[in-house]
């Protein structure tokens, strides 16, 4: 008998080649977590993420699920202040879900953190059961880059016309075919229709930048970054806000804006019924 577990995690994606495990590199979020879970369980463990964040993209609230033997015994961790591998056990009896969380956090790299682990229904799937996701894209508009934010913000260094960007964003709200705002993967045969519920654009971090927050039922590969790049071009007066309608109608990636750099993007929340 196997138990399904749901976990919420966060990571700084700067040095990783995205979420998805890849055969030619071990530097993926999925690969790192599966390696630690496999070590803990003594068998191969596959995790399923709510979405495949690209290389360099971050997450505050990524959700994943995985299965473990129901009767698994979690190895005791070292006492506080001792390194893994040293003797000593915790005296406080913990729930198995907390033991799994603590084991992962003890052996994962410092730029990946598991926030919580909980038992989930047998058929719960983090991607298939997700009903809404929130992505935030942060842009620095000041002339001088903040060195402490450089890994998690796009240093544009130019002011943006937020009113024009908001006008353009209104044309994106609702259910549309977003093929023109996707990476144009010709192998993709699934529907490119998605629903965007809201796009919130506001000045942020001491008015030295702008945050765009997208809420939708799902997003295509690179969709948020292409939407952001297009809205940035509107904010720089390089294109009109009415051009959004033309891109949606033509479904032509070449008509949309540039793909905004990965470092500014963060998966904030995933919601379930």
Write a compact overview of the structure shown.
The chain is of the alpha+beta class.
Element layout with pairings:
Layout: E1 2-11, H1 29-41, E2 47-49, E3 58-69, H2 96-107, E4 112-120, E5 130-140, E6 154-155, H3 162-170, E7 174-177, E8 193-204, E9 209-216, H4 223-235, H5 243-250, E10 265-272
Parallel strand pairs: 3-10, 5-6
Antiparallel strand pairs: 1-3, 1-4, 2-3, 5-9, 5-10, 7-8, 8-9
How many domains would you count in the coordinates?
A: 2
How far is it from the N-terminal to the C-terminal residue, by CA? 26 Å
For this structure, what is the CATH class of the largest domain?
Alpha Beta
Cα shape: globular
Largest sheet: 10 strands, mixed
Number of strands: 10
**Number of helical stretches of at least 4 residues:** 5
Percentage of residues in helical conformation: 10-25%
> Averaging pLDDT over every residue, what do you get?
91
CATH superfamily of the largest domain, by name, is Pseudouridine synthase I, catalytic domain, C-terminal subdomain
Order of helices and strands: EHEEHEEEHEEEHHE
CATH architecture call of the largest domain: 2-Layer Sandwich
Low-pLDDT windows of residues: 85-91
Structure description:
The protein has five helices and ten strands; from the N terminus they run E-H-E-E-H-E-E-E-H-E-E-E-H-H-E. Strands 1, 2, 3, 4, 5, 6, 7, 8, 9 and 10 form a ten-stranded mixed β-sheet that branches. The protein has two domains: 2-120, Alpha-Beta Plaits, CATH 3.30.70.580; 131-272, Alpha-Beta Plaits (2-Layer Sandwich). Strand 2 and strand 3 (58-69) form a beta hairpin. The chain has 273 residues and is α+β, with helices and mostly antiparallel strands.
């Amino acid at each position: 008998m196997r138990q399904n577990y749901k976990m919420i995690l966060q990571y700084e994606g700067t040095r990783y080649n995205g979420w998805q495990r890849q055969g030619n590199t071990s530097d993926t979020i999925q690969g790192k977590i599966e390696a630690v879970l496999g070590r803990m369980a003594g068998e191969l463990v596959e995790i399923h993420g709510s979405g495949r964040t690209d290389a360099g993209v971050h997450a505050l609230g990524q959700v994943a699920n995985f299965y473990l033997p129901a009767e698994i015994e979690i190895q005791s961790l070292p006492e506080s202040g001792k390194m893994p591998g040293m003797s000593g056990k915790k005296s406080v009896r913990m729930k198995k879900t907390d033991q799994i969380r603590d084991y992962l956090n003890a052996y994962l790299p410092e730029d990946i953190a598991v926030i919580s682990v909980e038992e989930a229904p047998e058929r719960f799937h983090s991607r298939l059961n997700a009903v809404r996701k929130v992505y935030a894209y942060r842009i620095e508009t000041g002339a001088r880059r903040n060195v402490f934010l450089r890994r998690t913000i796009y240093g544009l260094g130019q002011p943006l016309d937020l009113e024009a960007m908001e006008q353009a964003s209104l044309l994106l709200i609702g259910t549309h075919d977003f093929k023109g705002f996707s990476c144009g993967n010709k192998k993709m045969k699934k529907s490119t229709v998605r629903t965007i519920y809201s796009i919130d654009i506001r000045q942020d971090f001491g008015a030295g930048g702008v945050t765009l927050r997208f809420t939708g039922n799902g997003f295509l590969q690179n969709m948020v970054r292409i939407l952001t790049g297009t809205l940035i071009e509107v904010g720089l007066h390089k294109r009109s806000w009415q051009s959004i309608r033309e891109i949606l109608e033509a479904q032509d990636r070449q008509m949309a804006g540039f793909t905004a750099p990965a470092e500014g993007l963060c998966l904030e929340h995933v919601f379930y019924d």
